[in-house]
Structure formats: C-alpha cells, structure tokens
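Morning F.,

Quick status update on the modeling queue. The single chain you submitted on Monday has been processed. Sequence for confirmation:
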Amino acid sequence: MLFSSVTFLYAFLPVVLVGYALLPRQARNLWLLLTSVVFYAFGEPRWVVLLLLCALSGWCFGLLMERFRGGRGAKIALACGLILDLGLLAFFKYADFLAETVNALTGAAVPLPGIPLPLGISFFTFQAMSYLIDVYRGTARAERSLISFATFLCLFPQLVAGPIVRYTDVSAELRSRTSTWETTAEGLRRFVCGLAKKVLLANALGELCAIFRDSGDKSVAFYWLYAAAFSLQIYFDFSGYSDMAIGLGRIMGFRFPENFNYPYISASITEFWRRWHMTLSGWFRDYVYIPLGGSRVSRGRWAVNLAAVWLLTGLWHGAAWNFVLWGGLYGVLLVAEKFWLGGLISRLGPVVPRLYVALVTMLGFVLFNADGLSGVRADLSGLFGAGGLPLWSGETGYYFSSYAILLVLALVGATPWPRRLYRRLEHCRVTAVVEPVVLTAVLVLCTAALVDGSFNPFLYFRF
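Structure tokens below.
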C-alpha cells in the first residue's frame, strides 16, 4: 500500500489515527503493531510471517544477550541473530544474482530460485541488526516487551522504505510519548509536503523518464534530459516518502531521524553522501566502516575500508552488476576526494564543485537505473553520442519545452530556497492564516492527480 494512494489516504490512515486517538496510551503500541501488520499484508500477505519472525527472533536474541552480557552466550546470541537477518536478506535478495553470476562465469546451469523480494526487507533487517549490535555493545538495553519491540520493527510509516530507524532513536518514545496539537500540525504539514513531492513532482518526472524509454527518436540531448529528470525523480520520490514517514511519526509522537538535507547543493561527493539517505550512510558508518578501522588506519587500509563500504552500499540497493558499478563509482571518487581530488576541487570556486557533483550524480543515477550491464553500455553510449546518435531531435525539443517548467520547479524545490521563503513568511506571521488553506489545496490537488492518473510508482520498493 503506497502512502500516495487514495486507499491509504482516505481509508487506512483515518482508521489508524482515529483508533490511535481513542485508545488508552497503554494500548497504542498494540494498535500500531496490528495496523502495521495489516498495512504490510495489504501488499505482501505471504511474507507477514517473515516480518514477524524477524521481530520475534530479534527480541529473543536481545534478551539472551542481556542475560549473558559479557560472556560467551552473548556472542553466540549476537552471531545467531546476525546470521539469521543476513541469511534472510541474502536468500531473498541475492540468491538469483549469485546463481546468474555463477552461470555466466562457469557456464553452469544453476537454477534460479525466482523468489519475489519481500517489501522492505533491506530496511527492517538493517533495523533488526542495528538493535542487536547496540544491545551487544551496551549502548541500548534489551526491550522486555515483545509488543514494543515488534512495534519498533514493524511500524508502518518507516517499514518498507525507511528512514532506517534505530531502536535507540525511539526507545523512550515506545514507552511513553505524547501527541499535541502542535506536533500533530507539524506532522500533517510534513506529510502533505512529502505527498506533494511524490505526486506532483516525482510522478510527473517519472512520466518523462518513461517517455524517454519508449521513444524511438532518441538523441544525445534527450539522454541528458532523461539523466536530469531521473536524478530529480528519485530525489523527490525518496525524500518525499521520507517526509511522509517522518510526518506520520510526529503525529503519533515519534521523532524519526532526518534522511535528506538538500544533497544537490553539495560541493563534493563526500558532502553529497552526508546529505543523501543519511540514515543508510550512518548505518554503514557505525556498523561497518568504523568497526573496520575507519580512517584510523594506514592510507591503503583506509582506501580498502571505503571501497568495501561502497560496494556493500551498491549491493544493498540492488542485486545486479549496475548497482555494484554504481557503488564502485562512489567508492573510487570518495577515496580520490580524501587523498587529493577534494582539495583540488575546493580551490576552483563555488560553482565548479557543484557542477562536478551534478555531473557525477547524473551519471551515477544513469548507472543506478540501467537495465543490467547491457543497459549501462547503451545509456552511457547515448549520453556521449556513440554510434552516430544525433545531438538533437524533434522529439527532444518537444519534450524539453513540455517539461521545462516542471524541471525548473524541481530544481528550485531541491534547494533550501522554498524553506527560506517559508521561514520569512512564518516570521511575518503570514503562515498562520495562509498555511492551512495552501496545505488543503495541495492535498486536494494531489488527490485529483491520484484519482486521474495511474502512474504512481515508488522506486525504493525495488530494494
């Protein structure tokens, strides 16, 4: 069930919020758990048992580590929990990829399992693993209540697409939280803004990308238009979904971590990844990069650590070689920036570094969205005019002019300028009157777009 769907907006969510408001506080976690299971079952009924197994096992292993803290039993419990979570992720997400790779390299005929990928498995297994590691390290106490722990892992706002919420982020709120008119208004504002990002910007940009894929009149300029459109689509798609999740959390009294901080204003790739999908970057930093030694090692080992983290980051996003190349690209650039490239770029003024980041991210997202290695070759060839591709075509001009206003709005929306304007209006106390009207109009416009159109994908459901 997509947040950006009429069913969610006008059936599921009202029932959840009304029930949440009417129930006593001690029953609210159970209500959220039950409705989250219903939410997950709506899209993946066959894998509800898998989700609940992950919750039950994480709770049990956490208690065992608390019981045997400092001893061998705690290590065994941690190892068993991590093996289970990683095993589930590896089996469901990477079994086909491994079999295809073996077949391609050896000429064997290993059958592909062909098991559908459970929704959100990359997110909820990472949340479960972070909990187990934190309990083992002693930075979190094991949760005694199965209902509270299962609520943490299954909570529907962040269940299938993040942000990746750690137990330490919400442990106090699982026990006691309050919702006020102010937090509810804040949450509703954030949710509607995220919905607008998704429906009015990402979906429209996605239509342009789909038109490009189906076009028989491609040109070099059309390839670059597609690269720009997809880079903006995935930003508004994912950041919009994160905004909706954070907003829903605020309505219910939770404070989820931020996931995006205007990444396209970055002046380096290092800065970009401090601003893009911040909860994933933080997860790999704290649970992979630092345990490997981080930067407190020799320069050669430091480079290996960065490369390992970014290859894993690529694989986390998808089980295909284009994702490996995508992660490898960023690994190479981050190593280069740490050693010499960063200093060179920073001396080129404020504009050139941002153009460099824009070029790299567009090329990166072309890799990200390619259809395997053959798609990578075709898309990169098109960007650079290989095979006699024309620089311009009539179709390119038509769609460039048709989507020019949308692209400009998306570019402006990807900067802090709209927020700064809002802060100025808020300071002048204009928003108290205007904001409810504007948000209501935006919600109506999004609803009309959802009712009228059928193009409503969510890119990160693939992961």
